[in-house]
Give the backbone structure.
Amino acid sequence: MQQCHTNNQQKATVLILKYSKGGFNTLHQDLYGDVYFPIQTVLFLDEPDKYFTGGEFVLTQQIPRAQAKAIALKPKKSDMLLFTTNLKPEKGTKDYYLVKIKHGMSEVHNGERYTLGVIFHDAVS
C-alpha cells in the first residue's frame, strides 16, 4: 500500500460486481498504475444454475508466438479463485517463459450473478 500511495495510487479497488441477463465482462487485466500486486482473488456469491445461467469465469493465456488458450470455469457459491494479475511462469521445452493472463466473464443468460473482487493494490486516483 505504501508503494501504491507513493505513486499516487490511492483509490481502493475492492468491488462487488452484479451482472444481469445479457451482462458480461470482456477479457482484461486489473492493472491500475505502475505498482500492482501479482495475485488477486474473486469470491463467488451465487450458486450457478440456481440463481443464474451462463456467466462462466474465463481466463486466457497468451502464449508467445501462438494463439491464446482459453479456460472457462464454473465456480460454485462461496468458491474463491486466486489468479495472477498479469503474468505467470510456464515451463517450456528448454526453460521457463512468461505467459500473459487475462480474465473476464461470459454472458449471463438468465438471473443475476454477484461476485466480490479483491485486487490487492490501489488504483490511480
